[in-house]
Structure prediction request, 227 residues.
Amino acid sequence: DTAVSQTPKYLVTQMGNDKSIKCEQNLGHDTMYWYKQDSKKFLKIMFSYNNKELIINETVPNRFSPKSPDKAHLNLHINSLELGDSAVYFCASSLGLAGGREQFFGPGTRLTVL
Amino acid sequence: AQTVTQSQPEMSVQEAETVTLSCTYDTSESDYYLFWYKQPPSRQMILVIRQEAYKQQNATENRFSVNFQKAAKSFSLKISDSQLGDAAMYFCACNNAGNMLTFGGGTRLMVKP
Prediction:
């Protein structure tokens, strides 16, 4: 069983479209995250979500919005896609927010905006 | 703001030899953790090792160990008896309050047979 899964694995779309990436974890964790990895492999935190509390990295455009229907899911919605949004997006989860909690990562979704 | 720096974009090691990957960090947190993650070509992020900043003893996990120098804000990863499967991108990371990770730019490790 996959611990943290993401769908789709690959997403190709046109500039200006709206798209969503789904993330599900079956680890019983209560905290989930989204990270962006750009073409130079640089990884950056976008959001963390714990018990309905959302912590947003201030550099993330408001076109990005996480939505959590329940503790096992944290989906990423992106409006008005831009070329610079092309990247690999990773979902992760952990048990709690306490420092040092291991984060388990999904396989990543490669988003290509044309 | 928290920063993590990996000064070696690429490293190469002969199979069965030892290699050390460097990492420096800066944080205003008094209580923090440091991590090394491995990303093979499959792009799956895998935790290699974790160090609690308040612990002086260096963490070890089988062939992987760290040299944690708190005063110097240095956190290097040593891989002993390197194997072909160790070839990957390695990322150093530090967590902040809220457990969000700040990553370094990564080091690509190549293992020569």
